[in-house]
Amino acid sequence: MRKRYYLTTPIYYTNGAPHIGHAYTSIAADVLARFKRLDGYDVFFLTGTDEHGQKVEKTASEAGVEPQTFVDGIAAEFVDMTRRMGCSNDDFIRTTEGRHKAACTALWQRLEAAGELYLGVYEGWYAVRDEAFYGEGELVLGADGVRRAPTGAPVELVREPSWFFRLAAWQDRLLAFYEANPDFIAPAGTRNEIVSFVRGGLTDLSVSRTSFSWGIAVPGEPGHVMYVWLDALTNYITAAGFPDETAPRWAFWPADLHLVGKDIARFHTVYWPAFLMAAGLPLPRRVFANGWWTVQGEKMSKSLGNVVDPRDLVDAFGLDPIRFFLLREVPFGNDGDFSRRALIGRMNTELANDLGNLAQRSLSLIARNCGGKLPGRGEATDDDAGLLAAAEAIPGSVRLQLDRQAFHEALEEVWRVVRAANAYIDRQAPWALRRTDPVRMAAVLRVLADTLRVIATVLQPFMAGSMARMLDQLGVPEEARDLTALASPLAEGISLPPPVGVFPRFVENAA
Ligand code: MSP
């Protein structure tokens, strides 16, 4: 049986258009999904939209539109963003769908039957922007003398009837779970934060609201809608078929990986495992919290007018450079800063100069000097063997790095070999061998073609379109582009199509 892998992005709030922060997690997840498929896994890759709650209701009402109409419009934008970022998701869940309401209702009933819920009154602080409850002690005093959430979000005092989840009772079992599963929360900084938050003591969590109605009805309790985070987190099991545990997709649960932003780590590593344990369901294997992007040093905000729509970037620079840049520029887990300059810099050095030129030089020499046919392997010199060994090690080292979501390290492993191959071609100077030793020239070009084949194969998850073109030019048949295919050498003498540059230099238009 094939190994399974289930991974998710957060589901995005439908209160505004997609921006680069959303595209970031979706692209990261897509790279992992594609790599796992390349590595022989049966993958289920889920993304979607989080459409309920006070924030969405408020934004719709400010726009003077019915919430459902409003979210239909924004959800369509997220579907479009997902497609234009090249995502290969297997499903797109919307929390306003019937299947999701059914899953939330079933989960609620399980929690209630297990005695995990009780009716009371919530009196305390709520931040609509974060859709989060805050304790008095968590609030911070702003320079303006106004109390805010630790995230800077405005808070309001609410008092309303509410159902509660017995979260406090799960504190020790959560701590024991973190202890027994040291890889459950990553990176280490987030893990430490969460562990100390839970050690600090948990209070029962309000899981229903009565002051607005845009949500999933609490079964048997008119006037209550489920707290949007209980509703949202449930999406991960809805899409796997819950409550039908005989659904074929249920075989994918528990998820192998939830990718989330650092701001929502707490919901995924405290509330979510507690809900699942309380409902008697298996827990996800890992939650990785990525950092945030700023734009030229500033936080993105509508009021500053600096919100970057990833679709505009793709139109201007192409999809693959954007995907590459986002994952190459900053270690996943750290914050990063987006600037056109940094993007163009990476495009021109690493893509155009390092990889693009390597391919173009090697392939055009084969086209010119070998009659456009792939040469056979010669007797390997130490230099040949060194480069080939480095290339053959790439899939393993990339697998290792991607399993810890270290995208920039995975790319660095590849670029180490790209740079080694450039040094090799300069040392071997196959252009000069043409007259002096054509047999050796052919052998050198074959070493380069084989090295490029590994590089292009492994980079497919990052830059599918460009790498497909590179593999076409290397004569790699479409059915021989996964990791196992690398074990079978390409046949000598196959005709290669004329080489065409894959990564042109980007020249800023002065106009
Ligand atoms: N709806 C919730 C998630 C529910 S998951 C069960 C939510 N939505 S969100 O649209 O506000 O944010 C979605 C993701 O985008 C979060 O992981 C968040 O960290 C990420 N980002 C939002 N702005 C970002 C940046 N500026 N940079 C990087 N990621 C950012 O939270």
Task: Give a nutshell description of this structure.
The chain has 511 residues and is of the alpha/beta class. It has helices spanning 20-38, 54-62, 67-84, 98-113, 171-180, 188-199, 228-233, 235-238, 265-279, 310-317, 319-329, 340-369, 382-392, 394-403, 407-428, 430-436, 438-459, 464-473, and strands spanning 4-13, 42-50, 91-94, 117-127, 132-134, 140-141, 147-148, 156-165, 185-186, 205-206, 208-209, 225-226, 257-261, 287-290, 293-295, 336-338. α11 (319-329) crosses α12, α14 (394-403) packs antiparallel against α15 and α16 (430-436) packs antiparallel against α17 (438-459).
Give a structural overview.
With 511 residues, this protein is α/β, with parallel strands linked by helices. 47% of the residues lie in helices and 14% in strands. The protein has 18 helices and 16 strands. Helix 10 packs across helix 11, helix 12 crosses helix 15 (407-428) and helix 16 (430-436) packs antiparallel against helix 17 (438-459). The chain is elongated. The model has no long low-confidence stretch (mean pLDDT 96). The structure holds 5'-O-[(L-methionyl)-sulphamoyl]adenosine.
